[in-house]
C-alpha cells in the first residue's frame, strides 16, 4: 500500500441486522493520516459501519478494505485499534495491570505499556484501579489499550460521549497528536460541533451517506454556517428513497427486531 492510498475503502456496503437493512450500499474512503469524523444521529449506523470495518459485523453485500486487506484479516489485528462505546478494560485492575494483560494478548512488551501510558497522559495514575478513575481517565485507558500494537488506524466509537467540555477538548488534542505522529483516525460522534476538530467528515443518516467532505467544503456546498445546519440542509435536499418512507410510518414503529 502506497502512502497516498486510503486506509479504508468501502464499496456498496450493505448490512442487515435483525431482518432490517441498516446500511444501504455505502461507498466511502478514509485517507491516510487524517482525523475523519463519522457523524450522525443515534441509530444512523455509525457503530454498525465501525463493526464492519474491524471485521466483527456480518455484511450482506459489498466490499470493505482496510490497509489494503479485507476487513477482519488476522494481519490487521495489530494494525487497527478499535475502542467500543462500552468500557473494554477491567475496573478491578490498575491501569498498568490492564495494559500488561492486553500487551500479553497482543505479544508486545512492557516498553509498549509505558509508551501508551505516557501517550494518553496517565503515568501519574498508573497504579490506580480503573474503577476509581473518572470517566475521561477510563476512556483514556481503553484508548491506551487500543494503542498497544502501535496501530496505523484507530477506530473510535463515540469516545467523548459523557465527557465534560474540558475532557473532550483534551481527548481531541490527543487525537490530533496521534494524527501528527502518523496515525489515521476514524472517530464517531453525534455531537456535530466536534466536526471542527476533524480533517474530513462522513455524515450518515438512516444508513445512508449524506456527505463525504471537508468541513469548509460541506459549508460551501450547503451554504450553512455550521455542520448542524449543513446536515439539516442535506437531509432536506436528499430525496427519501422508495420504501424508506413506508418503513418510517407509525405502523412500522417499534416493530423492528433488535
Ligand atoms: N443487533 C441488532 N439487531 C437489529 N437491529 C440492530 C442491532 N444493532 C443495531 N441495530 C439497529 O441498526 C441501526 C443502526 O444502529 P447503530 O448502533 O449502528 O447506530 P449508531 O449510529 O451507532 O447509534 P448510536 O449513536 O445510538 O450508538 C439502528 O436502527 C439499530 O436499532
Automatic annotation (TrEMBL):
* Highest taxon of the lineage: Bacteria
Keyword Nucleotide-binding assigned = yes
- The ABC transporter domain is annotated at 8-231
| Record-linked SUPFAM superfamilies | P-loop containing nucleoside triphosphate hydrolases
Q: Which PROSITE patterns match?
A: ABC_TRANSPORTER_1 (PS00211), ABC_TRANSPORTER_2 (PS50893)
Q: Which InterPro entries match?
A: AAA+_ATPase (IPR003593), ABC_transporter-like_ATP-bd (IPR003439), ABC_transporter-like_CS (IPR017871), P-loop_NTPase (IPR027417)
Q: What is this protein called?
A: ABC transporter ATP-binding protein YbhF
User: What organism is listed for this UniProt entry?
Assistant: Oerskovia enterophila
Gene name of the record? ybhF_2
Amino acid at each position: 500500500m502506497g502512502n497516498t492510498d486510503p486506509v479504508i475503502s468501502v464499496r456498496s456496503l450493505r448490512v442487515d441486522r435483525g431482518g432490517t437493512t441498516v446500511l444501504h450500499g455505502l461507498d466511502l474512503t478514509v485517507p491516510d493520516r487524517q482525523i475523519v469524523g463519522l457523524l450522525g444521529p443515534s441509530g444512523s449506523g455509525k457503530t454498525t459501519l465501525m463493526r464492519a470495518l474491524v471485521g466483527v459485523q456480518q455484511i450482506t453485500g459489498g466490499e470493505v478494505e482496510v490497509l489494503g486487506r479485507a476487513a477482519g484479516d488476522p494481519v490487521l489485528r495489530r494494525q487497527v485499534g478499535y475502542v467500543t462505546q462500552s468500557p473494554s478494560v477491567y475496573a478491578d485492575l490498575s491501569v498498568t495491570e490492564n495494559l500488561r494483560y492486553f500487551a500479553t494478548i497482543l505479544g508486545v512488551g512492557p516498553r509498549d505499556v509505558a509508551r501508551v501510558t505516557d501517550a494518553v497522559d496517565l503515568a501519574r495514575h498508573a497504579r490506580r484501579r480503573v474503577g476509581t478513575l473518572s470517566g475521561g481517565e477510563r476512556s483514556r485507558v481503553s484508548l491506551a489499550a487500543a494503542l498497544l500494537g502501535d496501530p496505523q488506524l484507530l477506530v473510535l466509537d463515540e469516545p467523548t460521549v459523557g465527557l465534560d467540555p474540558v475532557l473532550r477538548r483534551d481527548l481531541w488534542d490527543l487525537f490530533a497528536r496521534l494524527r501528527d505522529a502518523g496515525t489515521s483516525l476514524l472517530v464517531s460522534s453525534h455531537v456535530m460541533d466536534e466536526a471542527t476538530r476533524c480533517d474530513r467528515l462522513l455524515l450518515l443518516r438512516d444508513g445512508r451517506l449524506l456527505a463525504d467532505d471537508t468541513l469548509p467544503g460541506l459549508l460551501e456546498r450547503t451554504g450553512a454556517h455550521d455542520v448542524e445546519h449543513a446536515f439539516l440542509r442535506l437531509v432536506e435536499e436528499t430525496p427519501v428513497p422508495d420504501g424508506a418512507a413506508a418503513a418510517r410510518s407509525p405502523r412500522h414503529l417499534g416493530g423492528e427486531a433488535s
